[in-house]
Design goal:
This protein is of the alpha+beta class and about 100 residues long. The chain has five helices and three strands; from the N terminus they run ααβααββα. The chain starts with 5 loop residues before the first helix and ends with a helix. The mean pLDDT is about 90.
Length: about 100
């Protein structure tokens, strides 16, 4: 499965990962995020832009502000890739065990 890694790159930054974790707990506005983090509002906005560009969060307009929530499609893409890695790893492990049994017999 081809994967473009934009999700992983977006989550590589610790502050950005914390923004993502906070939004995963519940949808939040920029102001709520700023109060929960040791960075400025412009920095939070920049982190949100990277997360939006990576399709990990979506913005929903509510009055004069935006409320951010997890983008299920982008998160689904990342999960599918991780699941495929796990499936491949288990398949390789199964093959190694089979070869090991064959050489012992």
């Amino acid at each position: 499965m081809a994967y473009d890694y934009r999700h992983m790159v977006a989550l590589a930054d610790p502050t950005r990962r914390r923004v993502f974790e906070l939004i995963a707990q519940r949808p939040r506005s920029v102001a709520e995020l700023t109060h929960s983090l040791p960075v400025s509002q412009p920095a939070v906005s920049q982190h949100l832009k990277v997360l939006r560009d990576a399709n990990l969060v979506q913005a929903e307009a509510r009055g004069a502000s935006n409320v951010y929530h997890i983008d299920p499609q982008g998160l689904g893409e990342m999960r599918a890739w991780l699941d495929s890695m796990w499936t491949d790893a288990l398949g390789s492990f199964r093959e190694a065990i089979s070869k090991s049994k064959e050489t012992k017999e």
